[in-house]
Write a structure and sequence with these properties.
six-stranded antiparallel β-sheet, Jelly Rolls, 5 helices, five-stranded antiparallel β-sheet
């Protein structure tokens, strides 16, 4: 996994195995995620959305704690996945980063609690699936307007005119959400994920794997 510019976000670019039958890839591995990020993903809910071309979903985020970490991929068609730093006090507050997710490269994005998330469907029948660390709770869920000029997200022209839900169309701007006290704080998010940040499980597992591999090579030599 590769860390993105916004702290708390990563992208996975899996190795694909193609042959005459089709293809195979591993799209989630708990150990690999922990090795890269220093934390585990506790699965509480799995979601799937199907969107026609031009649909924009987001920008959504949850109260922290407990927040909602997400592991997101596109299994049919293509989307432009967007991560927005809505954490007040963050060094990248108000900034965004985009990753194309599609059924060819099978990239996956992992977002820590407190980050805003959305995407634009680049094709019809764009199918996105995501694993969530907590279940949906309407009282903890919030959003900022995806077309907020202050954010300045460059939604792709190839998707056409953005199609928003009524909820997303009525979402506040980033500044309004901040004034309303809806945004999570970077400090609170850091405190919440601190037990993971200091974890040594990932490096220890990598060292253990290396020892096992060395032992296997020695036996087969």
């Amino acid at each position: 996994m590769r860390a993105l510019r916004i702290p708390g976000a990563w992208v996975e670019e899996p190795r694909l195995f193609d042959d005459s039958r089709g293809s195979f890839h591993e799209w989630f591995g708990g150990d690999a995620l922990e090795d890269a990020t220093g934390r585990r993903l506790t699965l509480a809910q799995a979601n799937q959305s199907v969107s026609r071309r031009g649909v924009v979903r987001g920008i959504h985020f949850s109260d922290v704690p407990p927040g909602q970490a997400k592991y997101v991929t596109c299994v049919r068609g293509a989307v432009l996945d967007v991560i927005v730093d809505v954490r007040t006090g963050s060094p990248t507050f108000g900034e965004w980063e985009a990753v194309r997710l599609d059924d060819r490269t099978h990239r996956t994005v992992f977002l820590s609690e407190g980050l805003g998330h959305g995407f634009a469907a680049l094709t019809d029948e764009a199918t996105v699936v995501y694993l969530c660390s907590t279940g949906y709770s309407p009282t903890r869920e919030h959003g900022v307007h995806p077309l907020d000029p202050e954010l300045g997200i460059e939604w792709p022209a190839e998707a056409g005119v953005p199609l928003l839900s009524e909820k997303d169309s009525n979402a506040p701007s980033l500044a309004e959400a901040r004034d309303l006290g809806l945004l999570p704080s970077y400090a609170e998010c850091q405190r919440f994920t601190a037990p993971y940040a200091g974890s040594t499980a990932g490096p220890q597992r990598a060292q253990q794997t290396q020892r096992v591999q060395r032992a296997q090579r020695a036996v087969s030599a």
